[in-house]
Each structure stands twice: as C-alpha cells, then as structure tokens.
Structure to design on (521 residues):
C-alpha cells in the first residue's frame, strides 16, 4: 500500500463513500474504516431520506420545517442549499443503484415523520440506510482508483504540530497533511500522507449509556479535529430519539422508526393513555426534542421505565410490508406488533453539532474537509428535522468533492513528517482501567448531561469528567496505542466539548434544555 494518497477519506458511511466516488476521477483515493466497510451508522438508518419530490410539497415548505425544528438557529443559506439540491441528489442515488420504494403508479412512495408538514421521506421499507450503503459500497469496491483499508483506526490528524511547530486554535494557517492510523490486525501504526483529508467518521452516541448508534460512533473525528485545533460548535445539541425499543441490556438500542408515528402509531402511557397532546398540538408527530422531553417528563411523573407506542391504527399488512425489520425484531423478543404495543424509551441518537464547515465541506484547517454527522454545516440548528441527516451527507459530501477536486492539483505532499512516536510506551495489561472509565463517562453524561440539564448537573459532570480526563491522558501517554484507549480518549474529549458548550449556552432552546433557563418556543 502506497502511503501517499491524493484523497484520504476517514469513514466508509454514506458521506465518505459518496465523496470517494466523486473525487476518484481526479486522483488516488484511500478510505479508512475502523471496522468493516459496511458497519456504519448509515447501515442502521431506518426511516429514510427527506427530499422534495412532488406537489403539494415544495422547497419552501421543507426549508421552513427544517428551520422550525431547529428553533431558528440553523444557517439559512445552508438550509436552502441542502433542500434546493435534495431532488438532484436523490436522482443520483437512484441512478447509482439505490432502490427506493415506489407506488404502483411508479412514483416514489413518500412517508411522513415528526416536524414535517408533508409526506417527503423516501425509504426502502424500514431499512433505508442498509440499502443506500449496499449500493454505494458496490460502486466503491468496483472502482479502480479507490482502495479501502478496513480495520484501520485513524488516531490523529497530521499538522504542523508534528513538524515541531506550536499550533494555536486561532492560527489561520493550520494545514492537514494526512493522518496516523492503527492497523488493528498487525498493531502497526502507519503514516498516511494526503493532499486532502476528508473526515466522515460519523457520530458520538456512545458517550451515553443508551444510544441507537453502533459501537463505532465514539466521536473520533470530532476529537481528532479538536486536538488538531479545528473550530467546533453546537455540540450541546445532542438529539435523543424518542422511540428506541425498551429492551434492557441491548446495545445499541434498537430503533423504532419515527415513520411508524407518521403511519399512525401513537405514544401512550403504560396505562394506555395518550399524552402528547398535553405538550404539543402536533401530538406524537411533534419534532423530536419536544417528544423526547415529553416522554422524559411522563416517566419522571409516573416512575415507569417506558411508555408504549400503540400501533393499533396501522393495518397488519402495512406493518408487515413497510416495517418488516421492526416486526421481526419485536417478534424475536416476544412482542407481536400487529397486536401488541411496543415499549419505548428515548436514546441518544444524533449530534447536531460538530466540526464547523462551510457550504463546500471545508473546515477551519486547510485541506481538511468534513461531511456527514461529524460536520456542523449549520443545517440542523438546535434540533435536526427527521431524515435530514442522510440528506445532509449526500449534499455536502458532493459539494466537498467538487471543491477538493479543484484544489488537489495545487497541493504538494508535506515532507519531513515523522513516524508515530511510541517511545517509552508499554502494553497496557489492565483493560479494567479503560472499561471502568468508559462506564463512568457514560454514566456522567446520561445522568447529568441528558435530555434535561441544570447548571449544577453540568458543573458536577465537568468536575467528574476532569478526573477521568487526567487519568486517561496519563494512561494514553504510557500505553502502546490500542483501539480501546483511543476511543476512550476521544469520547472524553467529545464529552468535554458537549458539557462546556452546554455550560456556555445561557438559555434553553431546541435540544438543549436547562431547567435554570426558561424554555423558549
Ligand atoms: P457513519 O455512517 O456513521 O460512518 C462512519 C464511518 O467512519 C464508519 O465507516 C467508521 O468505521 C468510520 N470511522 C469512525 N471513526 C474512525 C476512525 N477513528 N478511523 C477510521 N474510521 C473511522 N438519518 C436519516 O436521515 N434518516 C434515517 O432514517 C436515520 N435513521 C437512523 C437510525 C439509526 C439507528 C441511527 C443510529 C441513525 C439514523 N440516522 C438517520 C442518522 C444517520 O444514519 C447518520 O447520521 C448518518 O448515516 C451518518 O453517516 P456518516 O457517513 O456521517 O457516518
Ligand atoms: C427514524 O427512522 O426515526 C430515524 C430518522 C432519523 O434519524 O432521521
């Protein structure tokens, strides 16, 4: 494997793969995937991808729904770009082989989810992400310019810092020269020099005890970019999905798609009483921040461990045909959703913030791009509208690819980059130090930095986290690099950012609810 590459891509989910396919005509591409290529959050996506397709929907309605859900903190020009380009990106995904479900008329079948004023969610039954991943992976594997390094964990981005220069966050000339990566099979660390680097490493859900995210979502991209002194923001807006299956001990939590509520399912208490109308006139189809908070409140009042999703208004044939994955999963634990209600609880689901990027996926670091969940484009504001994440990945990885392809011919490989320095490190033989700190971190985040926060809880979280931070940095410096220690370090960095940004925000808005500040509508 050549350690020099024109385009380095960290991540093989939707954002990374689309970007790779689009830059491949302009040079060599290497994709890093820390597990296997298809184990991504993208593959878990259920409900679908939001886009404007037919009347009576139009771009303006989708734009307004996105801004309403985001409580107006969205960057409007970014919202307009994402939505105005949505139809084009869907056509391309379909041309590339993604099979979105269609009606007998030949038109795409469109579903509805919380906060949407129209039916506009394109889907492939209830496993849309898996279908998108399948189609993109197939194209990538057949591309002669793209190599994929599976089981390779990016550890850190390479910048002037590695040439011995002091780099400060406010510096304007920080430049990315590639990344160090751990080959998990051999244990060796390779230096990957790149003209351009794309971070498409997904989300952060595992900083919480309960999450819908796969185990790989440990915030590596945000943490690496932060250590490289990139600009990060909006991480206080962590989205909790209202309806994950209540099945204690299961990791990740299994999602019950919002499209079920779009098809008529209703949230009710354990006693079978609907409650969402008390919180929002849109009832069970209010945006996620509202629904998750309402469930949280109902559980606190009742002392119950879950609420129910009542699917009684959805016909048996629609359940079996549109939601086959959920039907089979629930049946496997003894719940027949054509007859029984589904026990559900909120779970950490999505990071609305991340590495700040412009409309072309460029970060504050030269030659470093970011796209997908790791990026903070400004599309989501204080709360993401359902199914706008896959859309964001499609639109901004496409735009980043155009920009990187324009720039690449004028970039030279950096010389003099040293190999990873592991002098003085030893094998850490006490995994308990890592597993216990991870549990503590997740407990701190879930108990003090969850759906509802307070100044006191945030302060306590920061104090507790600082102890684990010091211990982990010390352990990292002394240990031979391994995936568990890297992930723990990254999760601590990200949790730190979530807490500090939450402390900085002196208001309750969107997904950030602090009882010391009144909720703004
Ligand atoms: P991912 O798909 O998560 O891919 C991340 C990639 O980065 C992986 O290949 C991983 O191996 C790699 N990686 C990470 N760290 C490293 C590292 N250090 N070194 C090397 N590689 C690394 N959104 C919607 O719009 N609609 C939906 O219906 C929907 N449903 C969802 C259902 C579930 C259960 C979940 C969890 C999310 C859902 N989302 C949905 C959100 C959406 O799936 C994700 O936000 C989106 O797929 C993220 O894509 P991505 O390409 O940014 O990252
Ligand atoms: C879902 O299917 O409910 C998830 C959709 C999303 O996260 O946008």
């Amino acid at each position: 494997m050549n350690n020099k590459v024109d385009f380095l891509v960290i991540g093989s989910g939707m954002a990374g793969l689309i970007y790779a396919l689009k830059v491949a005509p302009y040079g060599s591409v290497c994709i890093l995937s820390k597990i296997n290529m298809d184990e991504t959050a993208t593959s878990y996506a259920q409900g679908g991808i939001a886009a404007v397709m037919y009347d009576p929907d139009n771009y303006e309605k989708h734009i307004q729904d996105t801004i309403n859900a985001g409580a107006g903190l969205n960057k409007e020009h970014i919202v307009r770009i994402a939505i105005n380009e949505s139809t084009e990106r869907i056509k391309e995904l379909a041309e590339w082989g993604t099979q979105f479900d269609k009606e007998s008329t030949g038109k795409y079948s469109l579903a509805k989810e919380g906060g949407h004023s129209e039916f506009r969610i394109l889907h492939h039954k209830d496993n849309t992400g898996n279908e998108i991943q399948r189609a993109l992976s197939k194209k990538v594997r057949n591309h002669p310019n793209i190599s994929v390094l599976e089981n390779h964990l990016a550890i850190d981005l390479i910048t002037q810092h590695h040439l011995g220069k002091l780099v400060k966050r406010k510096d304007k000339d920080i430049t990315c020269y590639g990344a160090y990566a751990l080959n998990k099979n051999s244990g060796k660390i390779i230096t990957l020099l790149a003209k351009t680097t794309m971070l498409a490493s997904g989300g952060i859900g595992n900083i919480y005890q309960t999450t819908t995210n796969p185990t790989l979502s440990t915030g590596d991209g945000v943490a690496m970019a932060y250590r490289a002194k990139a600009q990060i923001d909006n991480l206080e807006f962590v989205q909790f999905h209202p309806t994950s299956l209540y099945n204690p001990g299961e990791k990740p939590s299994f999602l019950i798609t919002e499209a079920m509520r779009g098809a008529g399912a209703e949230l009710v208490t354990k006693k079978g009483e609907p409650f969402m109308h008390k919180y929002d006139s849109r009832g069970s189809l209010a945006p996620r921040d509202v629904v998750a908070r309402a469930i949280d409140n109902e559980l606190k009042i009742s002392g119950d461990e879950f609420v129910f999703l009542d699917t009684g208004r959805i016909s048996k044939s629609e359940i079996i045909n549109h939601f086959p994955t959920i039907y089979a999963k629930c049946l496997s634990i003894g719940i027949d959703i054509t007859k029984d209600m589904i026990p559900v609880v909120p779970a950490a689901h999505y990071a609305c913030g991340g590495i700040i990027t412009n409309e072309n996926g460029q970060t504050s670091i030269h030659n470093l791009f970011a796209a997908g969940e790791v990026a903070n484009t400004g599309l989501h504001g204080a709360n993401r509208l359902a199914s706008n994440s896959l859309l964001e990945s499609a639109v901004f990885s496409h735009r980043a690819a155009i920009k990187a392809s324009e720039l690449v011919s004028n970039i030279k490989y950096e010389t003099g980059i040293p190999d990873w320095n592991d002098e003085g490190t030893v094998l850490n033989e006490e995994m308990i130090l890592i597993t216990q700190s991870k549990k503590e971190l997740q407990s701190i985040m879930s108990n003090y930095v969850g759906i509802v926060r307070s100044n006191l809880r945030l302060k306590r979280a920061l104090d507790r986290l600082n102890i684990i931070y010091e211990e982990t940095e010390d352990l990292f410096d002394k240990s031979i690099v391994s995936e568990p220690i890297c992930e723990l370090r990254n999760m601590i960095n990200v949790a730190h950012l979530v807490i500090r940004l939450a402390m900085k925000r002196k208001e309750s808005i969107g997904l950030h609810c602090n009882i010391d500040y009144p909720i703004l509508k």
Notes: The chain has a mean pLDDT of 97. The chain is about 35% helix and 15% strand.
